Task: structure prediction
Amino acid sequence: MPKDTSIRSVLIIGSGPIIIGQACEFDYSGSQAALSLKEEGIEVSIINSNPATIMTDKVIGDHVYLWPLTVDSIEQILIERKIDAVLPTMGGQTALNLCKEAEERGVWEKYGVRVIGVDVAAIEKTENREAFRQLMIDIGVGVAPSRIANSFLEGKEAAQEIGYPLVIRPSYTLGGSGGGFVHKKEEFDHALQRGLEASPTHEVLVEKAVLGWKEYELELLRDSNDNVIIICSIENFDPMGIHTGDSITVAPAMTLSDRCYQDMRNQAIKMMRAIGNFAGGCNVQFSVNPDNDDIIAIEINPRVSRSSALASKATGYPIAKIASKLAIGYNLDEIENQITKTTSAYFEPTLDYVIVKVPRWNFDKFKGANMELGLQMKSVGEVMSIGRSFIEALQKACQSLEIGRAGLGADGKHNRSIEEIMHGLEHPSWNRLFLIKDAMSMGVPLESIRKVTKIDKWFLAQIQELVHLETELKRYSLNNVPKDFFFTLKQKGFSDIQIAYLLGNVTEDEVYERRKSLGIKRVYKMVDTCAAEFAAQTPYYYSTFEEENESTPSDKKKVIVLGSGPNRIGQGIEFDYSCVHGLLAAKESGYEAIMINCNPETVSTDFNMADKLYFEPVFWEHVREIIELEKPEGVIVQLGGQTALKMAEKLQENGIRIIGTSYNDMDVAEDRGRFSDLLKELEIPYPKYGVAENAEEAIIVAKEVGYPVLVRPSYVLGGQGMSIVINDEDLEKAVVKLLGDLPGNRVLIDHFLDRAEETESDSICDGDDVHIIGLMEHIEPAGIHSGDSSAVLPPFSLSEKVMNDMEVYSKKIARALNVIGLLNIQFAVKDEKVYVIEANPRASRTVPFIAKAYDVPYINIAAKVMLGANKLKDFTIVRKLEGYAIKEPVFSFDKFPEVAKELGPEMKSTGEAIRFIKNLEDPYFRKLYKDKSMYLSK
Result:
């Protein structure tokens, strides 16, 4: 069936601010869906309150509403615009719940709006745990023994009937919120109460826990002719008992028998057909008994999910793009395969490579948190890697994580305490993967590890092979490692740093030069969806070690944009937003735009966003070889946050041009000591400071600058390791801990300006002119990290003198640092005096917020300035803000109820929302301001 021509205007509901359990994968899906619908000539309106994402940018939607995600907001849009249909499947649980609420209030019927991509009835069937359980029984799909409970008494009766261990699953929640496992009777009352309170309908499913069973996911698409295809099978490395968002996952499934896979396919298709007659996508999760291959259904989500983004990047099959076309009437055989351009979308992808996803956690931000993984998701981001084998992909994923690891072990960071290792295997946390390797290195038998972890023997055998290879390598010196063995090591994912560590007394560069002399270098393979059965047209590559290279460099002038790696607290989706605009600006300026990144959730790793995408770790060895192959004019590091900035020194050392501000000038700003010296030279006020390398020196410095003092390391993002202390004893503890967590770092001791106001400026400099993008005033006082503060644009209570000083200092610093591109400066204001706290010559989390508030494409402008394609005078900048815009942080403390919610110098928020107000009498602002007064009076 061709496109439904009655649909001329569609509203896409977004997912709102980033929280744990609902991250930027939905912004990726929403962006892809919007572009897909625009291709069909459909007018696209978007509602989303997240300013940090590309989804809320004008390059994505025709009409973007940065409004609160409420039914009232939606109704206002429907009054303002003629909307024919709403697509709620791209915004996660937030969008589905909002769609259901609007249906219950009669909003869709009142305005003649059709719900496409899902049946509202399907939402109820899948989110209501009892309705889902009964449906599965009706269609003959296995489920775990369970009972629904709406009260404490019903829950107790269910537990008595089913027996322990149990799992409690609240209805209508996201990321496993409120859920958990109960192993014994004494734990049940508390877990049940938490689950009932977490569910908006005060309803939980009390279910038999199939701990230790294997877990799988299938991604499906269905069209209006009832054709269903399976896009991807995904296997969890971790067994049942850990939320799939916190599990290492592998695609395609590695240990699934063909008979079991076919059975699972048939059941998934049956489930999708049973939940409603709609065209779109869904995700199905199954559990399999490892002893007899019995299958039970865990859940089905009639929307794109975290796994949909992963499956899209894993296969090259753009699920959200195709799902949105199915939603407006097309059938699968009528849509072109986006990779081959010759086959149809009714062609199930086939992989001749392996992908591995590893989550990224930020437990360091939540002191005292329960770090054991379970039913409730706790990770803040993830990386994906592609290799020709599972073990190659796994090592590449470890290199991508931004936790200082050079691969899976063999980097000097192993644990040697057998007690800690065995406890960590039994009580899984962020490091269990590394502890498995450590256990094997210490001689713990594979079968013992399998019994404790319940991880499939095949996966463990793959990791054990690494231990054998390491033992063999230690027999050689660098110059006599046989070529074939060297080649095998690289095929198994060993980095040059790991090989140098294992050989001892050699450097990474020496290993690199040796393998180059042996002719061992990376080749690049194309992600083609069809195992090379058909020619692929899309330049989307991963590296491996084989003979044939499929990535042929063009003779065009080109630029590489380094991405920001996995999302984590302090470095979120705002940097991916910046990278996307960097790619667009490079293309508009006549460059071939090349992207390097490893985050499957983001728009920058969409295969049609860059001219060429390398889905690779932002890790020096990988970046270096891509640069050698492509020979770009230069590399942009300013847009990818700390991940990309950390690469600047290596680029400088190797004579590779950094586009925009130079490495030395960036380093002046990053090195707190050098920066303070520069401020002194410029006669710009700054808090008194000193530098220390141990606790004794820190106490001497603190006495000179005066308590209270802010203790912090150089070269960090998101306030990592920062604390405010008021005496010698606390200072000593803080310094010892900081140097233990960040060895080799220097400690900065700044006098803390108590009860000062914090403000910020963002600007663009082209080497001559400086344009102030925006001045912001924080609601919370100095001492609370800027990422955790509500910021108001323009300032609401600063004097003309203060704002003038901020502008003057911003321009002085921009010129003194020779900034070409972006600059963010944070100030403290006390008694009308403006002090500079820090300067960041890079994209910041506030630039997307200012760009959306003023409706000016600032990152695009900055990128063109960096590239030398334009000067600031080439742009006519017209701002469109009436009243004020407020950036309000959003937290995920509900995932860590045991953690204190007090804010301080170390950032804890996971995302942000934007709110527009007409004037300062707005009740929303008055409440925030009242909270600020409470802070200041402490």
Notes: Residues 688-751 form a domain with the Dna Ligase; domain 1 fold (CATH 3.30.1490.20). Confidence is low (pLDDT under 50) at residues 934-938. Residues 559 and 632 are 5 Å apart (CA to CA).
